[in-house]
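To illustrate the input format used throughout this study, we show a single complete record. The first block contains the structure-token representation of the backbone; no residue identities are included at this stage. The design step must infer an amino acid for every position from geometry alone.
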């Protein structure tokens, strides 16, 4: 997703930048799931001229529409409303991907079945970077942008090189910290996600699933919202294992069953439980993040999206942050003062602007995980049984509402256009 939006932004803002996309899969595919888009991201879609087509996909009409987001306590027999936010656009992931790919219309610029293993950057600032693929072939480029997800091969090369350099300089402690940046970290959370056709639900449940709802509960949460104009319902249930380590023992993605989900969410409000169980074969997804990287760039290489800042899905912000990276990077590469000779310096501006912002969002998603799963804001001592039985001080729900609203404010109060202005300011002092 991040790579496609970077391509679209280059096409629009920096048409003289020639690019190739190397994709390990044999074709573009997406998991069966939904994705949310906040106003900051909607601005990028507007800038790219995609607004009308996107509104057609969601079935939402008119400017700025989007769904109301409700926060509800769901692990008791009756639902308890906590608070609500407004205006998020929700999409079927593969439909969004298809639309982006259609507009990119990259043709033979997308090279499929090309799994990057590593890259090597020469000491000179102008000689080409060499990309090494698993099939033994190579390619060259002036800049390499790692948009290769949470297990990024670009991040592996970048941080292994940083660590080797530190070791050479006798900084062994720093070297081991840098090497730790290569591997993703398990968050203790496993997500059960999938889509269910609205036609398979009772009339009552179709009505129930017609808005964007986040259900909180002890050590579990669930997110349910309609996509594709309400024809399909996105269903996500998340289970947190207290005291879990940072390494997941088992396949990261496997198919589960509705029975398993039913057992995990046993005792939840009947309608929520019924919707969670309505996905026949949900994908069971061990959720990993990247550590907070000390930089997203090295020389003429940069990381964007999950490769740089894979985060938990508890603000629905991962895709959006990848889009913001692509937008800002293209703004930089489109600038008349950026040349091959100062490209490394220009990428540092990308790092300066995007890293603090995206790492704040990454932290916010982790904080929201604790809120949704009642592991913070004075909920720590409430047991799973007491939470289900409604035996807790209900004033805690007000604290949760306040903290949640405070957390989500960034996505409504700030604009990506402000970040673009900041970049342009910094580009003025770039040495040419
Ligand atoms: C359960 C769950 C729910 C989520 N819900 C939301 C949500 O509601 N909203 C939201 O915004 N985000 C959500 N996210 C996060 C979101 O999916 C990611 O942030 C987003 O997909 C990141 O985009 P990306 O382009 O950086 O990486 P990816 O989407 O992971 O794309 C990486 C691409 O690189 C390719 N690739 C990988 N390795 C190589 C290699 N070595 N060589 C060549 N190609 C390679 C892959 O095949 C893939 O096409 C969710 C994540 C999870 C796990």
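Output of the design step:
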């Amino acid at each position: 997703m991040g790579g496609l939006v970077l391509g679209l932004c280059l096409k629009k803002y920096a048409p003289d930048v020639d690019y190739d996309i190397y994709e390990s899969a044999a074709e573009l595919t997406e998991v069966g799931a939904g994705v949310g888009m906040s106003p900051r991201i909607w601005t990028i879609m507007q800038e790219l001229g995609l607004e009308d087509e996107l509104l057609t996909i969601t079935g939402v009409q008119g400017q700025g529409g989007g769904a109301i987001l409700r926060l509800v306590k769901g692990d008791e027999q009756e639902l308890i409303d906590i608070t609500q936010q407004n205006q998020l656009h929700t999409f079927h992931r593969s439909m969004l991907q298809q639309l982006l790919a259609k507009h990119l219309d990259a043709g033979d610029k997308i090279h499929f079945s090309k799994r990057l293993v590593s890259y090597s950057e020469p000491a000179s600032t102008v000689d080409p970077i060499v990309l090494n693929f698993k099939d033994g072939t190579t390619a060259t480029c002036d800049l390499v942008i790692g948009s290769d997800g949470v297990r990024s091969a670009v991040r592996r090369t970048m941080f292994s090189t940083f660590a080797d350099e530190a070791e050479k300089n006798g900084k062994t402690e720093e070297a081991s910290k840098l090497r730790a940046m290569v591997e993703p970290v398990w968050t203790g959370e496993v997500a059960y996600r999938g889509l269910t056709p609205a036609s398979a639900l009772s009339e009552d449940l179709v009505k129930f699933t017609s808005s964007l709802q986040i259900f909180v509960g002890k050590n579990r949460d669930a997110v349910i919202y309609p996509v594709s104009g309400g024809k399909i319902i996105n269903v996500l249930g998340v289970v947190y294992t207290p005291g879990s380590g940072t390494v997941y023992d088992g396949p990261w993605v496997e198919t589960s069953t509705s029975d398993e989900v039913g057992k995990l969410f046993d005792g939840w409000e009947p309608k929520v439980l019924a919707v969670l169980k309505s996905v026949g074969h949900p994908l069971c997804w061990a959720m990993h993040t990247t550590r907070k990287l000390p930089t997203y760039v090295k020389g003429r290489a940069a990381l964007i999206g999950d490769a740089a800042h894979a985060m938990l899905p508890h603000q629905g912000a991962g895709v959006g942050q990848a889009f913001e990276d692509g937008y800002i990077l293209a703004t930089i590469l489109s600038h008349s003062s950026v040349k091959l000779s100062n490209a490394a310096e220009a990428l540092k501006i990308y790092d300066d602007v995007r890293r603090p912002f995206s790492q704040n969002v990454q932290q916010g998603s982790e904080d929201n995980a604790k809120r949704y799963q009642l592991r913070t804001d004075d909920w720590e001592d409430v047991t799973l049984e007491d939470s289900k039985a409604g035996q807790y001080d209900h004033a805690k729900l007000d604290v949760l509402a306040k903290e949640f609203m405070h957390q989500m404010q960034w996505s409504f109060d700030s604009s990506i256009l402000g970040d673009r202005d900041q970049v342009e300011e910094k580009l003025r002092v770039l040495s040419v």
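Structural context for interpreting the output: The chain has a mean pLDDT of 93. Residues 2-66+91-182+291-371+397-427 form a domain with the FAD/NAD(P)-binding domain fold (CATH 3.50.50.60).
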